[in-house]
Amino acid sequence: MKKAGSVEDFEMEPVSVPTSPAGEISDDLNEEDGRKNSCLKSKVVAKSRNILVEIRGKVLALKKLVEDKWLQPYGCISKSDTTRTYQVWPGNNVFFFHGRLVCGPDPRGLLLTTVSILVSSWNFAMYNGDDLSQFPRLVVPFSVVLTIIVLVSLIIASTTDPGIIPRNDSASVDEIGPSNGTRRKRVIVNGVELKLKYCRVCKITRPPRSCHCAICDNCVEKFDHHCPWIGQCIALRNYRFYLMFVVSALMYFIYIFAFSCWRIRRRMLRTGTGLLGMLKHFPDTLALVSFSFAAIWFLGGLVVFHGYLISINQTSYENFRHCYLDSKNPFDKGIFSNIKDILCRPSPSSRVDFRAEAMPST
Ligand SMILES: [Zn+2]
Ligand SMILES: [Zn+2]
């Protein structure tokens, strides 16, 4: 598969940020270090890309095997001569159910997240259930309901098109501009001038707040970040499901942490053993408490951070790049309007119909 872009193609133009002054004093040693660093960086990028291509190839081979061996013989799917857009899509995404589900290229993070949640839930239901007899019988069933909510939001966030922008494969040289592809357009949004950068991979001028994800190899609208734990870009169309996943996972881990702590305390009082004794007799519950504790801190930090970002209407990408350090954020409409804008506005439909018949390339 062709990979036409260089590393610079994957960087979004910082919005309304003056560039830092060039011409810093540098000696030969610094130049040598700089060369070594850039060489190392390009090697790491090339290596990561090779790994991703290899993983994607294996996932596609597995998918084809499942379709050929099990789905087609039993009539679950039919063979078709029509080539669909998802079959020839040049990005790194992996598609399931004939282009209905759009996933990122690396499923390892998603698998790890799913297994961690399932193992925690199983551990809680198996070992803590016996000690919770003095609580209403709904404690364990409620943990199962929470687990289902967490997993459903995780699956929706990881399989929804995040807001992929269609490529412009028919762009002429005139549209592309200079050979270095740095032609910029400017737009005014709420009185603030924003610079838009041309993406040489997708051959489009990126809309405001969009960015080319180097992992998925697509330009994505209102790009927030590429989440390794979900294995998918988090952007305009799946941000709410991502938030739902993070908040429900936080509630879930607080829930099992509280009851697991209660179980440990009860056992310690009953048997008179200390923490070391508990480690010997109940390693499962202590492992669950430790894992839940770490998860609560991690997820709690994410919830607070994204709550702050929603209140000021910024994406994680814009925040990390300090895009509005020296200029007003033109998308900030005040806390309540920002919350309404991000959480309550209907999600736009996908800009790419992955199930449509593929147009022959010109
Ligand atoms: Zn792009
Ligand atoms: Zn991505």
Automatic annotation (TrEMBL):
One of its GO terms (molecular function) is protein-cysteine S-palmitoyltransferase activity. Pfam families: DHHC. One of its GO terms (cellular component) is endoplasmic reticulum. The chain crosses the membrane at residues 138-157, 241-265, 285-311. Its EC number is 2.3.1.225. Residues 1-34 are annotated as: Disordered. It catalyses: L-cysteinyl-[protein] + hexadecanoyl-CoA = S-hexadecanoyl-L-cysteinyl-[protein] + CoA. It is a multi-pass membrane protein. GO terms for biological process: protein targeting to membrane. InterPro entries: Palmitoyltrfase_DHHC, PFA4/ZDH16/20/ERF2-like. Keywords: Acyltransferase, Membrane, Transferase, Transmembrane, Transmembrane helix. PROSITE patterns: DHHC. Belongs to the DHHC palmitoyltransferase family. The DHHC domain is required for palmitoyltransferase activity. This is S-acyltransferase.
